[in-house]
Design a protein that fits this description.
- Four copies of one chain form a homotetramer.
- Chain A is an alpha/beta fold.
- In chain A, 36% of the residues lie in helices and 23% in strands.
- Chain A has a nine-stranded mixed sheet. Chain A has a five-stranded parallel sheet with strand order 2-1-3-4-5, with helices on both faces.
- The longest helix of chain A has 21 residues.
- At the B-C interface, α1 and α11 of B face α1 and α11 of C.
- β13 of chain A pairs antiparallel with β13 of chain C.
């Protein structure tokens, strides 16, 4: 029976942001070791990264395809791969590892088209493989608490949703100046590499995913107005949402809102109360029950139970931060991988990570929003 | 030369909320006296109110029409009238006083149809009369500061607006229960008395007015989705907005959002910065300049100048509250009335009150939103 | 039976801050009229102020002594006087009106020595007169709620108090520069006119009074460290407090804390919970019950009852501000005056204003703190 | 030249809180491996923990003394040890490793008496060893920013400090009930194991250390009032502070303040401005410059430079949390260890960790506070 795992990474050369987050999140869990990788297309960076992390020389691969094949062939091959490459490569890399029979954790977005998503889904199912898409924010304890309070009916039937994800980092793109201001923004604003969408695909999709995780509700249709401000892809989107149960909501996402750093704010309004969660103060959940004073629930306290309690790592009042949210996702995913390898049955908590269906839902949502935007904000089915 | 005024009131019998606010706002200004009134259709309340405030017996009128005529005929007649009756009577009462040649301050909404609004406008112009519509929130000092900072270009060109006005007080109406929960809600949810709209007409219109005051921008068209939750009129509205300059925004208003008491929040995003104002903390204005830390501007401080400084009444850190916002509106209006009577020219600050054009704009906005809502959220011209 | 009152004012010439606050607070209550006054030692200002407020020519007095005598002699003389003169004159002015048999509302501090206070107290008792000392902050609804929750035992036995009153407006006095920065600061930093204390007498005393109002607890002894920063009187004080029940606390007051405008913050910790109130957000009260999430109680809501509900004036979410706190104090005081005149018995709510005993307690507290400061922070009995 | 390190751990058996924090903080840095340990006095836990982390069987030691000797004797022995045992054992464990010539990182408090501290200091110096005492909070980026802004004179000369560290977790100890409520509280309230102090030694010392780090100022003397509420050691302390430059301040620490989880709040007031930092929102620093609006500096933004920028790990708006603060401390310490081993000179940033002098200062501070408390709050030299 295994209780520790071996994993590989594609992408995540030294200095790359998201790769480090994944690696550190896995490190916090203390149950898996980095044993193989194809960290960079620049061979020097690739080697240097692998050596730095103590990866054996013959398991630092120059191509992900080779890595998938050779690791699959080893007896002590990796148990899963973390894919943290640029967005436009997720599909092909994921496909290679699924074909090789290796479980996959992939940074979002899953891919660029619904067809690609369905193909990956089919492949994973066929090969009996697990597939996580790391929509980070559902990993936070207090988001899990929100989900459970809503499930229990604490705020009644949901009647309205007001959610936003505002950032400021691309404000200098307004007007479409040739010179982009940050390295990161280069590929994000290049349609070839970022797909049909910039802002909605990058951050708007987190709104959809986090709301869906909390409420179980997906948009039936959307009506969106997009602003490109002279760039090829949108930097700002305001979106009306209609859910399957007939309730409505509004999602706003933007990368040009001065004063907002990583402002994901979710507010769920029900017939008996309301819930509000703010990513920049993630250890708190504002809960209002009709006719009562608003309450500030805090992570790690005695009155917080369920998954929020299970995923608590540090005493209350000591901020955990984003890396623990990632770690919580990896915890469930790695537990599921471990049990699958051991032939054990999965518990509900082992499934508490965003999976390929969530990934496909994200692709659908982005497409519907962009389509609506191009049709003068007509309602568009998701 | 006059420096004090006489005013009359229609509505505002003892115990009525909005009448007291108007009376107290005028009292804070210390420059006008209540000298006539038709306070209630219940004669006893009418008499009792008038006597309580020291109004002479023969100037406590049983009908507003009689009041308009008799006051107009007196040499020491009232200089202006405050109309604080239920919404559906604003038009007729205002008309009577305009016809009698008396300046008017009228609680919002101005009236129910655009035609009525245009008629009142014409009448006021013909008779050389001033007409205030008391959209309260533009009276706050920090809203005036926002306006001036935006005028000066401190946040650049406006590219996005995100504004909301959320309340919780009608949450029990969800499901359309026959029994309404509060006295106030009775007429507000009765289409005969509240017109074509409930929530948008009551509070959504404040969003439009406050944003317009701050930015000078009016919506060119709107796309709205409304929720009635089983009632005759809407309790919730999410609205996409397109301004004349092509920028977009989103307005949300609701009376069923638990945890929100009087949550008017205005956020204006520009190409060089952003401004945020929250009605429940009205003495602060959040100002972010691109590339700098967010700043919390406070009322009454040395670095605040212009109209915000002129309309400051109490030292910084000592909350002024809503009544002073009302007082600021009355201050400008009464100053304008006084100068008009004296034959003096009006300064810019004398015109710093919401007038009949703002009132008409409000009626147009509400109609467009309701029309869009009834046409499956089609873009509708304002 | 009287239901309206006549009042006079000493001090409060046009442009004076605190006089206007008193006048407006009384105006909000709508039950008393300004009918006499000695508004300024500058005759022109005195006359102009009196005329502006419609005071009859023969009741605009050049001296407060004359005013006290003449008003006492009239059949329609004033029912009470509001004293809003500089601090060093409170004692003599109050004495004159008490001797004339007129009820007194006096701005704080009551006087400069305990002996003066006891003399005024005796005089008031002898003549059967009411005496309010306008410690503003106990007038706020949510302070009243704090008092009632504590009285009911909601936070158990009080074990610790942490309170502060921080301002920034005298920061330029640091170093004792000859030139003072504001007009207001001139007399406040002049020992002849401000007594033995600057900062503690001006604002520290509000901490003592507000805590005492909330908890019923007065300091038994204090140990204080004072900072003058080169000025004659202190600008900053940190004070250890021991209450009669043996519990301890700490009070900090300062006029040199950048970023703090009028930062009165009271935190009461008990064996079963805690309460926090912040003057700059006065409509909220933070209540924590042991083992539960912190709650944000808001003024004007359905779950707030008792005096906090009785003293509510505007719907929840619409900020009331400082003037209403003042009005609440005047409401109780004027109700008590009215009933006393009518020979009616006083109810508990009629006594809900800071009285001469609170004023004397303030004088005692300031003296003990200053004494302790001058004895290297030795514990000093209050 | 080494660029990776080997470390051992004493204490930190599976399930122990603080050991996991240290391990994870080191893991985030990605430059050291756990290669030896004596994790628990319970042999089973010791073995299980070592195996779980992949420590070789012969390097899982039953006694720390054996570990120190054997590791010192190996060529591939550990480079440093992390001591995360109960407080009363820190001294002896640290001594053993220093004697063996191994660098030490020790959880606070360093030890229980000043003599012990000085002995360890002498030993470290003699053997040329580095010694970190993990006062966590100085590891936060924004605390580093505060230090640099103050060093640069941005807030002028410091004139007042107001700092607190409030928790609620021992509120049930009030009254001295025999049954303690949590496992953690057992040894903390046992004088044999926790030394002369509970609350001040546990959290009050963090106030002293964090303020000293930010300002460079240490207390010259203190006057403290302590509350035991029926327990053997104090649960609450209010402390007047006088610094070497004559400025004053107040420190409050408590474990019985309902509503406060881990409420370390530091406010530094200077002649030109002020700085405020709140541990529960660690990515922000409130900065006020005299005469200007308060600013909210955020971690990871373009306008933040120096050490705060160097120690930034995740993009702004994505909360880093406590573990990164720990990691920053380990980063400097491990860099210093690495360079020392390599014979390289240390840079300023390599010394940016709390060292043995800070540890001794903490012991001195706690002793002075407790002494003052036992002498009726007399001023006591630190």
């Amino acid at each position: 029976m295994r209780n520790r795992l071996r994993y590989g990474m594609v992408g995540g050369g030294k200095g790359a942001f998201i790769g480090a987050v994944h690696r550190r999140a896995i490190a916090l869990e203390e149950t898996a070791e980095l044993t193989a990788g194809c960290f960079s297309s620049r061979e020097e960076v690739n080697k240097e990264t692998g050596r730095f992390y103590g990866v054996a020389e013959d398991r630092i691969y120059s191509s992900y395809a080779e890595m998938a094949q050779k690791e699959a062939a080893r007896e002590d091959g990796i148990d899963f791969v973390s894919i943290v490459t640029p967005n436009h490569t997720h599909y092909e890399v994921a496909k290679a590892f699924l074909e090789a029979g290796i479980h996959v954790a992939c940074e979002k977005p899953l891919c660029f088209t619904i067809e690609q998503g369905l193909e990956l889904e089919k492949l994973a199912e066929k090969n009996g493989l697990l597939f996580a898409v790391t929509y980070t924010y559902t990993g936070y304890s207090m988001v899990k608490l929100a989900r459970e309070l809503i499930e229990k009916g604490e705020i009644g039937e949901i009647v309205n949703v007001n959610a936003e994800y505002l950032q400021e980092w691309l404000i200098d793109e307004i007007g479409g100046g040739a010179q982009t201001t940050t390295k990161l923004s280069v590929w994000r604003t290049d349609p070839e590499k970022s797909g049909i969408s910039n802002c909605v695909g990058d951050i708007g999709t987190h709104i959809e995913d986090t709301v869906a995780y909390m409420t179980g509700m997906h948009p039936r249709r959307v009506a969106a107005v997009l602003d490109n401000y002279g760039m090829e892809l949108e930097l700002n989107a305001n979106i009306l949402v209609e859910y399957e149960n007939g309730a409505h909501g509004v999602y706003s996402c933007s990368q040009v809102c001065a004063g907002h750093l990583n402002g994901l704010v979710i507010r769920i309004f029900g017939s008996k109360g309301a819930i509000e969660w703010v990513q920049e103060a993630p250890d708190r959940l504002l809960v209002t029950k009709k006719g009562e004073a608003q309450q500030i629930y805090c992570r790690g306290t005695g009155y917080v139970s369920g998954r929020a309690s299970e995923t608590n790592h540090i005493p209350s009042g000591h901020p955990e931060g984003l890396t623990y949210a990632f770690a919580n996702i990896y915890h469930s995913f790695m537990s599921a991988v471990c049990k699958t390898i051991n032939g054990e049955a999965l518990e509900k908590e082992d499934r508490d990570y965003p999976n390929i269906h969530d990934g496909i839902q994200g692709v659908r949502f982005v497409k519907a929003v962009i389509d609506s935007g191009s049709m003068d904000s007509s309602w568009t089915e998701v």
